[in-house]
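Format is sequence with structure; example below:
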Amino acid sequence: MEWDGSKVEHTDAEWEEILGRNRYDVMRGRQRERGFIGAYVYTKTPGVYCCAACKLPLFDAKDKYDAGSGWPCFSQPIDKKNVYYREDYRLPFKRYEIACRRCDSHLGHVFNDGPPPKNLRYCVNSIALFLK
């Protein structure tokens, strides 16, 4: 499914009602779920992982791999225009956060220790995804 570039916007109160408290804290509050507990950490089911907030396709299950990090990891997004990056200085070092381009929801972080050829590891909170 090709994304038409439209945005999904809601007030914070609307997002909290739509997502529920736990998902809201992660996706809108830019928090993270605890490692090794998410629904998709060990899943090997084929399909497409979509944004839990706006349903935009983000990652293909064929690009998912076990990095041993405790979160679902992917080597690339399904379409690079569906995610964007922002610098994250909430720890004592710089990281790159990944967010959904359609609804601006926090997904996780991208690191440069992934598999070749791009060497990227998209480390995503399970609660920010749904598999279809």
